[in-house]
Structures are given as C-alpha cells and as structure tokens.
Model the fold of this input.
Amino acid sequence: MCNSNIHLLVVILSSFIYFIGHVVGIEVNIAAILPEDDRRLFSMKHAAPAIEYAIEHLKNNTDLLNGHTFKVRYGDTNCSPAKGMNEAYEFFIKKQVDVFLGPVCDFVLAPVARQTMFWNIPLLSVGAFAKQFNDDRLDEFRMLSRVGPVNFNSMSNAYLDMVKYFNWNKFKIIFEEAGQAEYMEGMCYLAASALHFESQSSKHNMTQDHFKLEGHFVIEDILRLEVGLNYGGSILPSTRQNLFPIEHAIIAIEYAIEYLQNNTDILYGHTINVRYGDTSCIEAKGMNEAINFYSVHNATVFFGPVCDFVVAVVARQAVYWNTPIVTVGALAQDFAASRMKEYNLLTRVGPVTFDSVARSFLAVSKFYNWVRFKILYEDKGQDEYMESVCFLAAKGLHLESRATMKPDNYKLEENYDIESILRSEIGKSYSGE
Done:
C-alpha cells in the first residue's frame, strides 16, 4: 500500500478523533475484515502494516489522539460473501466496531456495505472496483468510502481515451468469466462489464462486442474466428513464457500475407517466402540464425528478433548487410537513443517501450506533484519472459526522470525480505513502493 494511501488513512482516522475530540479517553473500534490468503488483493498481511503505521503516526507525531485509542480487530473473509457477512455481523453484534476497514473483494463488499447503512457504521475499502458501486453510491452504498486510486470505471475511461486518441471505432472484449479469480472473484467479468457499459454511454461513436472464453479454449483459434480482420485485436496472456513466441507471430505473419494476396493488388505477381528460426532469446543463437538466413537464403527483411539483447546484436549487423529489421521488441531506452547511429535499419512496430512506460509514470508524478521516488527492482526479475526486462525497465525510468525529478534505485538481491526492504529503503521518505 503506497504512502499516499497510508497518509489518507491517517487523515481518515484523524477525522474520527476530531468528531469525538470533546470526549476524553474514547476507544475507537476498528474491524478490519480482509482475506488472509496472500494471493488475494490487499490481503491481511499487506494491509495490517499500513493500519498499524497510521495509528503509530497519530500517536507519535501528532497531538490528535488526546487520550483516545484505537483497537484493531481482524477477521478473515476468504473473499467469500457468506463468510465476510458473518464476520461483519459478529463484530457488530458484539459491539466491537465503530468503523469497518474492508471487505476488499467486490462480491463480499457489496452485501456488507449495504448492511452498514442500517447499522449506521462507516466502511472504508480499497476494493469497490465494479461500476455498480459508483452508480449506486447514493442509494445502496452511502456509508462506503473508496480509498483506492483505481477502479474498473477509471480503467474503462483510460481505455476509451486511448480509443478516441487513435480514432478506433469498434472493439471486441474477449474475457474469461472466472479469469484472475485467484486474486478476486469475478475480476475479469467485472472489468469487462464496466468497459462494456462505459463504452455504451460514451459520446465517442463506436461499436463494441464481447466474447466469453469457455472451457479449454485455443487462443489462436479464438483470435482467428472472433477477432480476425474485423477488430483491432487484443494481446492476451499465454502460458508460453517468452514474449512474442513463434507460435503467436506465425498467425499474424501468415494472416498478413493472405490478406495481401486476397484483398489487394499490391503484390502484382510477387510472392513472399517466410522461414522461421528459433533464437531462444540467446544472443549467440539469434546471431547465428540471422547469419544463416542472410548468407544461405538471401533474406530480404528480418522480422525479429524480439528479445532486446538479441535484437541489439542482429540490428547492428544488419546495417552492414543493408537488410531492414522489423520488431515488436527493442523496448530498451538505448534503441531510441542510438536509432540514427547503430540501429538505422531497425523499425519498431510495438505500441510500448520502456521510454513510454517511463513517460506515463512521469505524467502521473506530475499530476500528483511528486518530486522524488525510489525504484526497487530485481536485476533478473521476469527473466522468463525476456532477459533483464526489470533491469531495462528500471534503467529507462531512471534515465527518463533525471531531468525533472530525483530518482533513486535499489537492486533487490536474492532471498530478500520485502517487508524489511520497504521499511529500510522506503520508510517515510518516499511516496510509493
């Protein structure tokens, strides 16, 4: 939980003290009903330090308590509506609650938040992602206050802003009804539902459709049948580890060639012959594949590599061969910085680089008037997807931010304890984790 949320919690707890300030020695009962399972969003283990920090801050750094105290009791909802409602009821019937912190899972939060109106007990939550909480906030959820920065409405608005920016006029939502259920029940369904309804009410002229993934689906078949030529498409998670594996690229390449052959006159009798080589995201292997294609097969253009360290060596060599490279990789800041010298035959077709990620973060920083931050990263983090992806992302953010902010960084070593790292490296000095 970032410091801005902790500070908000401090303000909220302070407000309780303000309203009872004329009474001496009141004990404010906080019932924190949260999932104990650490796979869940905002689990008890993650939320408890923030709650305790807020109370400690009030006690040691302010005069607001004035003899008042907080008593925090925890209950495990297990993200189950029945169990969450029972925990809330037990705290209420035993007169052990003046304010609820949580639930955080939407299907648990909804019935508890409705009941708190009859109990006249306020409820604070970083959950309430679903669109319904915003639509019915004055009717069913009057005692509920959200303290989280993002919900599915804001996610939908961000997506629709992007749709408007690129002048897209239709899209299709492909979702698993139980997708990401290990984090929150109905997460993908609620996100898809919010995007569906938000786009319907948008003034931007667009057509949207949706498709629910059933059972053991084959994503390649779904993309051909449900997306095909008719929609802008979507990039979905795969069980394959590397970014942009051959199995995914083949579909796009073959589809593009088929489209040119059947729907245009661009080829004018020319043919396109595609050969594939496996780089395994290894520099030496990728370079060897490129040499073979150039010397044996007289390659006219390279599609890939996509892993940055492999792209770099092949793209430098391609300059001497006068052979263009097209890639969705080249995410690192170095490719943009040296594009006119070392990589002048390289063309990126991907929508995102680490530079653009950094600029997005800096835009958020500017909006919230943040002046410094600290990057915590694993040198080998996410290496199963692309070698040094976390290091390259951290480097891009560091270099992009130096001109306007005061970045610092900390490399996480093996077998680190994240709670200790957050206390020692973040503490009260930075605005986030």
Q: What stands out?
A: The first strand starts at residue 27 and ends at 34. The first helix runs from residue 3 to 19. Confidence is low (pLDDT under 50) at residues 232-240.
